[in-house]
Amino acid sequence: MQLQHIELSKLKDATINMRHAKAAPDVSDILPSVKARGVLVPLLVRPNGDGESFEIVAGRRRYFAAKRAEEDGGEIEPLPCAIMEPGDDAAALEASMLENLARLDPDEMTQYETFVRLTKEGKSVEDIAVTFGITELMVRRRLALGDLLPKIRDAYRKDAIDATTVRHLTMATQRQQRDWLKLFNSRKERAPRGQQLKQWLFGGQQIATTAALFPLDAYKGQTVSDLFGDDSYFTDADQFWSLQNAAIAAKRDALLAGGWADVEILETGRRFCSWEHEKTPKKDGGRVYITVSHSGEVEAHEGWLTSKEAKAKRRAKTPKGDADATEVGDKPVRPELTNPAQNYVELHRHAAARHALLSHPGVALRLMVAHAIGGSALWQTKPDSQAARKEETAESVAKSKAEIAFAEERKAVLTLLGLPAHGHSVVRSNGDDYRVVELFAKLLSLSDDEVMCVLVIVMAETVQAGTAVVEALGIHLKVDMCEYWEADDAFFDLLRDKEAVNAMVRHIGGKRVADANVTATTKVQKKIVRDFMTGDGRKKAEGWLPHYMAFPFRAYTKRGGGRLSDNTARIKSLMS
Questions:
Q1: Is the pLDDT of residue 269 over 70?
Q2: pLDDT band at 322 (very low <50, low <70, confident <90, very high)
Q3: Of 108, 179, 454, 519, whose CB neighbour count within 10 A is largest?
Q4: What's the CATH fold of domain 2-147?
């Protein structure tokens, strides 16, 4: 038997299951828990004949509860499953899992405390997972709670914070957590949660000047201060990251010059998991891990090795009596080329390599895509943050057909590149040229069609929302918004202009209906539009779109639609 997390779409009810029936079971008793905490008890499954999916042998109600939660608009992650192997007895396996789980406290914070104690006793994540019959991912998630401030952990334990919000907070820096707590405890302000919190952490978060590793006088853009003048922020994020990446690279070089055997710069937003590493001093080959948050904060974790590396070093450690060998092994090696000599060789090799590249456009394409994804000292790319001004807008976009379909395509490309597919964009620039080489090598192994699939996703992620580029793209591709967009409460709530709404009534219902309701309230007129769209008491307007959603964009009054109208006017002559 092996334990792993499996996507909901790859699971199906098995006919062997004694509770198998056409009708879905009643899951009302466990649905609130699944929505709040997810599925905690692993399902018992076996591989299906097609090799791509799994049949559920035990855990049918948990499966249907997860499906129901997803249908209600919730975020359901892959479910923990125990995969049966040939010869396994289902009844015995299920009894064993239940026995193991019976020893695990149901409270997640208590689980965290238990797991931390076990790691301090020398237990690995794998050991803990085997002990309690759960997946290693579930163990890591509990250990990640240790990065939360104590007050946040207490609020979560008291159910004052939901599971989705806590998951996002585990990715926040200590400073971000403190800022979030202030909002959480405030009577006047509202702390962002769920999808809005994700935007707050990674999309709309301003970069504080305190995060800069470089001298502030090197930054030539403007900074803004908060209302109390306690903090100031950079207004030019591109310039900040250009300077910050150069400073991070310099920090890496200084650490290497200081005698550290290796310095690893993690991808932006990736956390350093101390429980997967062991403290190792510099003299024993310890490594430095540099983490960079989306808000620009940089931390250096000095003196660590992965648990596997540390164990290997202990096994191969030189005997105590052989001190001379240890000193020779630890002594830094002086390269045979001086820095000026290295520079001479580098420049000549650079000139020859880039001239050779001119004859290989396919290789150049792959190298360009690798730079667009990973970045370098000369390349800076980032995905559009899709920052929403209102939480309702963020939720509406997240549930839209276009966003869901795009996420699936992006997941396929992430899998193609061998990158983590959870909660990340393909573009993840951090200026690490070794990372670019790693991506370049992967792209060289892909076909032209596969590389183009990657390039399309990269380009789509880096198209900036609200710009003339989006308008030009929609017009050229003849994008039919009827295929993607459906009117929702968020759309109608944001319509405030009475003259524009009356013009919209005329657009969908004709002049007679509009004139008959010209003095009606905006609320009443919006309901008329909605009734025509749904066919509720009025003839349904099939395939109708408000001017706002169609390409090219059109406003309903001469006052125009702000920058959307400006974009259309500017590109009209260029796209004709």
A1: yes
A2: very low
A3: 454
A4: 3.90.1530
